[in-house]
Amino acid sequence: MIQRIYSTLPTFKCLDFRPGLNILIAQKEQGATSKQTRNRAGKTSLIEIVHFLTGADAGKDSPFRTEALVNESFGMEFDLGGERVSVERSGSAKSKLQVSGSGFAGDICRITIKEWVEALGESVFGLNAGQDAAGRAPTFRSLFAYFVRRQISGAFTTPEKQATMQQVGDYQVALMFLLGLDWKIASDWQQVRDREKTLAELKKAAGAGAFGSVIGKASDLRTQLTVAEARLGKLKSQMGSFRVLPQYRELETEADEITRDLNKLANDNTIDIAMIRDLEIALHVEAPPSLADLESTYAEAGIVLPGTAVRRYDEVRSFHESVIRNRRDYLSGELSSAKQRLESREQQKAKLDQRRSEIMVILRSHGALEQFSWLQGEVGRAEADAESLRQRFEAAEQLEGAQNELEIERNRLTLRLRRDFSEEGQRLADAILAFEETSGRLYESAGSMQVDTTPNGPVFGIQMQGSRSKGIKNMQIFCFDMMLMRLCAKRAIGPGFLIHDSHLFDGVDGRQIISALKAGAETAEELGFQYIVTLNEDDAFKETVEGFDVREHVLPVTLTDATEDGGLFGIRF
Fold first, then answer.
1. For 15, phi and psi rounded to 5 degrees?
2. Helices 425-442, 510-527: crossing angle, 10 deg rounding
3. Residues 37, 560: contact at Cβ < 8 Å?
4. Residues forming beta bridges with residue 530, ordered by sequence position
5. 183: buried, middle or exposed (CB in 10 Å: 19+, 13-18, 0-12)?
6. What is the DSSP letter of 148?
7. Cα separations (Å) of 134 from 188, 192, 456, 504?
């Protein structure tokens, strides 16, 4: 229960609250037209002060950081854990609060926003600070916002959400907790949604762009991996049988030199073979002319040779015969030399060829050290390629198989949720009956609340006749909040107060407003909580209902925007 809200701002209108229903009225001054509003009277500012003092963020747009308020402290006295506690905070030191109470060192202490929110979460909802580590557990701020809905957050849109931007997982976890159900199921569901979102982004990235070349398709990678592993095996086998020969290069050079020598010998043989052929032809073809032929030639010419000339002819013939003989001796000698060189070269070729064969056998069975080093390098590169492909293949398989796993997980969570609903059937019945009971106080045809299991987690639906009407939608939220107060009271959790801004009653028929105030007052008295409402004067007194007088619950402080000092802060800024 909130006892008092105050400020160091001299013009601030301090508010003292009572148990049960408290109505803060914004008056409509006499003579004001329908076009004059009371939007700046400060009704919504009361909501913001309560959130400011319970650890809400105070961004640069916060009214408490404006020049007019930044140096002023705002405070609240309220019951926390059965004790009276005071908390004060200012926009100039927004990261810390000043708290006093027996539970806080018995005196005044300054604590951080994080410490204060953790303390509130433990005292108000029995939360364990460690539950918030994964970001999938109920938090004080996410739960408290259902009991003090903020117009600025869009809290008057649907009953199950306390803010327009509230994510599915956040309100599922919060409502499962407040209804006394297993909120961890909703938390797990949110993890599935997070994984699905990540998976969708990965698939999108894998399908195009640079990331696609990093992962690829599992089918393609399987083929590449098979080929890479086969090549790696072959290289490893070669390296395993490889024998390093230190003289490998020297033998390789010798083999090359032998090859060049053999080629030279072959060329020389070709020349000598041709020479032998020519010499043999010359020896066979060449023959000296006979002496009879010479004498016959002279006789035919009519030349009678004298005796001296005949003697000289004999000498010449003798010389000619010697020349012929010498010529044949020379040709025979050249032929013999050529044949000897040919035979010598053949013998030399046979030796060289034998040596080259021995060297080649050695070279084929061994390798050089640099070849071994190169082979080692190739094995290393092949191993790296195969490992990279293996990791990409595993990632691709996980990526392609993750969707199936998530579908299985969704089915498993659906079964868990159904089992929890079955085991906690009484809690669900209490919630459904509480909603229907409050709705029945407002309308002849009572609305109903459904809690159902879907493939996307628990769904909290409301059915009420004429639910398209803005006013009836707001009354759905009223009934939903009263249902939460009843269930929390039964479990002895919650802040002990419920605050409804005047925006909740926008568009609501006057009869339903007065019925809601009566229902709220009676429920608050029955369950022992405090119900604080801000209302415009004409809405509050538009209708009457038997057995309930609104004026008995109106706070002595009233607000108005007709004058400069008529609002909650007493100033305009």
1. -120, 125
2. 140
3. no
4. 497
5. buried
6. B
7. 11, 14, 20, 34
Please state whether beta strands 554-559 and 21-26 pair in parallel, antiparallel, or not at all (unpaired).
parallel
Q: How far apart are CA 528 and CA 328, in angstroms?
A: 150
372 touches 378 (CB < 8 A)? no
Four-CA torsion 36, 40, 43, 47, nearest 10 degrees: 150
Length of the chain: 573
pLDDT digits (tens, 9 = 90+) for 376-431: 888 899 999 999 899 888 888 877 777 788 888 899 999 999 999 999 999 999 99
Measured CA to CA, the distance from residue 187 to residue 169 in angstroms comes to 7
N-term to C-term CA, the chain = 30
The tokens of 293 are what?
Answer: 């032929």
Of 178-182, 207-211, 454-458, 464-468, the least confident: 207-211
Alpha-carbon distance of 389 to 27, in angstroms, equals 75
**Neighbouring residues of 182: CB distance < 8 A, sequence distance ≥ 6:** 176, 416, 420, 424
Cα separation of 403 and 222, whole Å? 20
**Cα distance between residue 421 and residue 415, in whole Å:** 10
Residue 138 and residue 128: Cα distance in Å, rounded? 10
- Helix 369-423 × helix 183-207 angle, to 10°: 140
Instruction: Compute, in degrees rounded to 10, the torsion defined by CA atoms 190, 193, 194, 198.
Output: 170
DSSP string, 363-409: HHH-B-HHHHHHHHHHHHHHHHHHHHHHHHHHHHHHHHHHHHHHHHH
For residue 558, what are the β-bridge partners? 25
Give the Cα separation of 562 and 274 in Å (integer). 135
Please tell me whether residue 143 adopts helix, strand or coil conformation.
helix
Rounded to an integer, what is the distance from CA 27 to the centroid of its chain? 54
d(CA 195, CA 2) in angstroms, rounded, equals 42
Count other C-beta atoms under 10 Å from residue 75's C-beta.
20
Nearest to 464 by CA among 449, 486, 451: 449
Query: How does DSSP classify residue 66?
Result: S
Helices and strands in the chain, H and E counts: 15, 12
Residue in 171, 535, 187, 215 with CA at minimum distance from that of residue 399: 215
Residue pair 24/534 in contact (Cβ under 8 Å)? The answer is yes
Give the pLDDT score at 311. 62
DSSP state of 84: E
Cα 482–Cα 488–Cα 494 angle in degrees, nearest 5: 100
Q: Determine contact, residues 157/446, Cβ cutoff 8 Å.
A: no
CA distance 210 to 205: 8
The pLDDT-based confidence of 313 (bands split at 50, 70, 90) is low
Burial of 47 (0-12, 13-18, 19+ CB in 10 A): buried
Count CB neighbours of 127 within 10 A: 21
CA atoms 55, 56, 57, 61: torsion sign: negative
With tokens 């032809």, the residue in question is 281
Among 555, 521, 529, CA closest to 14: 555
